[in-house]
């Protein structure tokens, strides 16, 4: 099959959705399919407009952007590529780029698939302006994506429920996966401890350093938790501006208990998870939690998860079954959950082992998608 994936960013941009599209495209190319990615030029630096990486044909088109990545709009459409496709798979209806390309693919006669993400998820955004304007934009894009798609997928049971109840649309659940080698890697905790000279118990955050991710809530919770567990430390892994969080840790007198690593390679990230008591995700908005790959990675390493009950998280993390759920923006409740697992390691082992049962590999996800593509 000739399969085209649509996303406004692709490698060398690194992020959750970018990594997903790359895993799917490369996985399909390895199976002998002709895999393409149509994306914008944003984030590509000096890389060529057309290139092949790991068997995937990449097409970067001229685009313009209105402030936010989702507001990227293509200024050209590679009609010849779209016209001859067997399947065109668009990722995220919140992206202007994706919706426009899917509309064009549909007009040219291609079979179209849209992966819906964070449907109607702007209502709890901290910004009043976004709460006012974004819901209208979101509903517009959902309707356009529904009209232009032959197959509708979700990676969130929250989105499935909303599309069924509010838009009368039936969808299929296809989550994200992980690399199979992650399941069989030896424990890498000692390597991580040696690298960073840490022997104390740890909690770990993995993700972007963004205000919607609640990292300030995590730091405040750590300040509370260390009153009961004074040796506890936090490792914060991911790209973004560290300054406001370093300043907060310093203000709370716990700067020596927070390690910021920035972006790290996979081995260091896995070493941090292996070392940890738990992965902690204190997000404050539905919009940023469509499907947390960090949760899947933690479960793959048999680690429990402590997370805010926002977005898809409460549909996946079941309190006292495979993790602990806390209310968003509640640093006291988060601190109590952290202390619970710091003091009861056996509970953490049970929760992590239960989470491991739900983990799927990218190979399994690619098989599911290829089966869907082949139907109809």
TrEMBL record:
Species of provenance: Thermoproteus uzoniensis (strain 768-20)
Annotated keywords: Transferase
Range of residues in the leader sequence: none
Domain named Glycosyl transferase family: residues: 190-357
Residues covered by the Glycosyltransferase subfamily 4-like N-terminal domain: 14-181
Protein's recorded name: Glycosyl transferase group 1
Pfam families hit by this protein: Glyco_transf_4, Glycos_transf_1
Keyword Transport in annotation: no
């Amino acid at each position: 099959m000739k399969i085209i994936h649509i996303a406004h960013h692709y490698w060398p941009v690194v992020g959750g959705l970018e990594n997903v599209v790359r895993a799917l495209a490369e996985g399909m190319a390895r199976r002998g399919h002709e895999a393409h990615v149509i994306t914008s030029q944003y984030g590509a630096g000096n890389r060529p407009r057309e290139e092949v990486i790991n068997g995937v044909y990449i097409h970067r088109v001229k685009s313009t952007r209105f402030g936010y990545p989702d507001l990227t709009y293509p200024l050209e459409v590679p009609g010849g590529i779209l016209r001859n496709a067997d399947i065109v798979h668009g990722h995220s209806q919140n992206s202007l780029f994706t919706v426009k390309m899917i509309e064009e693919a549909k007009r040219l006669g291609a079979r179209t698939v849209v992966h819906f993400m964070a449907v109607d998820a702007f209502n709890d955004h901290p910004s009043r302006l976004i709460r006012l304007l974004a819901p209208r934009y979101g509903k517009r894009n959902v309707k356009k994506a529904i009209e232009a798609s032959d197959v509708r997928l979700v990676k969130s049971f929250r989105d499935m429920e909303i599309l069924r109840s509010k838009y009368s649309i039936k969808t299929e659940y296809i989550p994200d996966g992980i690399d199979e080698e992650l399941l069989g890697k030896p424990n890498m905790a000692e390597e991580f401890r040696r690298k960073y000279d840490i022997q104390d118990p740890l909690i770990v955050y993995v993700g972007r350093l963004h205000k919607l991710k609640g990292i300030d809530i995590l730091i405040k919770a750590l300040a509370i938790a260390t009153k009961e567990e004074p040796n506890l430390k936090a490792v914060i892994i991911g790209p973004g501006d560290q300054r406001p969080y370093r300043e907060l840790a310093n203000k709370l007198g716990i700067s020596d208990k927070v390690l910021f690593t920035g972006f790290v390679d996979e081995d260091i990230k896995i070493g941090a998870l292996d070392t940890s008591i738990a992965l902690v995700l204190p997000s404050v908005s539905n919009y940023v939690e469509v499907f947390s790959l960090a949760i899947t990675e933690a479960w793959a390493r048999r680690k429990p998860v402590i997370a805010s009950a926002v977005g898809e998280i409460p549909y996946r993390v079941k309190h006292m079954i495979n993790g602990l759920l806390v209310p968003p923006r509640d640093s006291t409740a988060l601190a109590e959950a952290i202390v619970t697992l710091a003091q009861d390691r056996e509970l953490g082992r049970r929760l992590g082992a239960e989470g491991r049962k739900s983990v799927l590999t990218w190979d399994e996800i690619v098989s599911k998608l290829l089966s869907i593509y082949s139907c109809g």
